[in-house]
Each structure stands twice: as C-alpha cells, then as structure tokens.
Amino acid sequence: MSPTATDTPTPYATLLGFTRYVDRTGPAKATFVGGLRRQRASRSGFNPHGQLVKALKTDIAFHTGGTHLSAVVDLVKPRWRPLYEALVPGALAWLRSLDEPDTVQLAQTHDALGMLGGLPVKINPHLGLRYADGRAEAVRLHLDEQPPSNEAVIATLHLMARHMGQVLPHAEPVLVDVRRGVAHRRDTSVKTDQVERWLAGEAAAFAAIWTTAA
Q1: pLDDT digits (tens, 9 = 90+) for 24-56
Q2: CA-based nearest residue to 123, from 166, 170, 175, 152
Q3: DSSP class of 171
Q4: How many whole angstroms from its chain centre is CA 14?
Q5: CA dist 100 to 56, 58, 131, 180, 203, Å?
Q6: Contact predicate 69/55, CB 8 Å
Q7: Looking at residue 7, what is its pLDDT?
Q8: 170, exposed or middle or buried, with CB in 10 Å at 0-12, 13-18, 19+?
C-alpha cells in the first residue's frame, strides 16, 4: 500500500529541534531528522522539564528568591530527581543574577511559526521578563547536559529576534544555559544577512532529509 498524506508528515521543526540539528554534522544530521520525523508521525514525546519551568516562573512572579526552585527537586518523581538536582543550582544562579530581581516581572510571550524557506519552525520561548526600566526579554532555556555551541546560540537568538514582533514586541532574545547559569545575548558583530543565508541552507537540507527519511 502506498503511503498516504497522514503517513508522511510534512517537514516541521521546533526551535529546539532545529537548533539541535544545526549543531550536528555529517550522517548525524540525517539520523537526527529521521528521529524527529518518526516522533512527529507517532505524536510521541514527553517533556520532563515542565515542573522546573513552572517553579522558575513562580519564583519570578512572586519574587520568592528561588524558594520554589529549591523545593521542586523533592516534588518530582524519583526517576527525574537526578536531572533536577543537576539543573536547579544553575537555574538559581541565573535567577539571582537578574537585574533588580525584586522588581522584574513575568511578561506574556506568544509562540510564533516562522518560515525558513519552505520549513516551518515553531519559535517558542519559555518565558518573558519585563524590567522596571521598561526593558523586556524573551527567554529560551537550554537544558541539555552539554553547553550550547556557538552555532546553536546564534541560530536560537537569530530566530527569536526574527519573530520578536509576534513573540514579545520590543524585547531582546536571551538564551539561558541553565546548568551553568549563564545567559547568552546577541553578538552585535554577527551579520544578520549571513546568518539568514546559513540558516536557509540548513533548513533546505533539513526538509530534504525529512522527505527522504524512512
């Protein structure tokens, strides 16, 4: 029986999936895209970080200085406790590094669907921040064990900035490496047009691999 439209999902990536893809080289790219395609076709996937993000947002919203982050380690299922024990110290360090943490507020962000050539990419920050002086930031959390590569940082910040009008108008994109408590911001020396051409090429290759993946 020949495959139907439902059997063959159209190419699609989340911001996380696409930036993980650009971080890979050679055959690892095809293997990774094939895995994403199968996951989308089966509608599978589980996010173990939900309680961490919720605790972080609660601490920001109520200015509780990390109380909820510190407590969440004991609230998650035992299988996730080592993961949370690795993430919480860096999350606390980043929270305490915020400018005037007692006045910063959560800001509402919105997901956006960006197009890189023919590839839809879901732009989904974890949270937004608004400072007392009016500045705003849209924050994406990097939760992986390894720090983000320079390519992943550039791609993430570029794609968030590209759609900031939908995500959180007039905000700056920030990528927080949670395990190390480090915030990455855009490098003004990076040329936007060069990044756009690079990502368009990566997106074209991603879509081509997706359509031929078994």
Answers
A1: 999 999 999 999 998 888 776 678 999 999 999
A2: 166
A3: P
A4: 8
A5: 16, 16, 8, 20, 39
A6: yes
A7: 57
A8: exposed
Residue pair 66/89 in contact by the 8 Å Cβ criterion:
no
> Which tens digits make up the pLDDT trace of 119-151?
999 999 999 999 999 999 999 999 999 999 999
> Residue 128 and residue 173: Cα distance in Å, rounded?
9
> What does the alpha-carbon distance between residue 32 and residue 119 come to, in Å, rounded to a whole number?
16
Cα separations in angstroms, 2 against 7, 9, 12, 41, 212: 9, 14, 22, 16, 15
- The amino acid at residue 22 is V
Can you give the pLDDT at residue 4? Answer: 44
Structure tokens at 99: 């400018």
Rounded CA separation 175/193 (Å): 21
- Do residues 90 and 179 touch, judged by C-beta distance below 8 A? yes
**Closest listed residue to residue 63, CA positions, set 22, 94, 106:** 106
**Res. 2: pLDDT tops 60:** no
Judged against a pLDDT cut of 70, whether residue 193 lies above it is answered with yes
Contact 18, 114 (CB under 8 A): no
For the entire predicted model, the pTM comes to 0.91
Helix axes 50-62, 81-97, angle to 10 degrees: 30
Q: Angle 119-125-130 (CA atoms, 0-180°, nearest 5)?
A: 140
Token output for 36 = 């994403």
Element of type H or E holding 148: none
Mean of pLDDT over the chain: 92
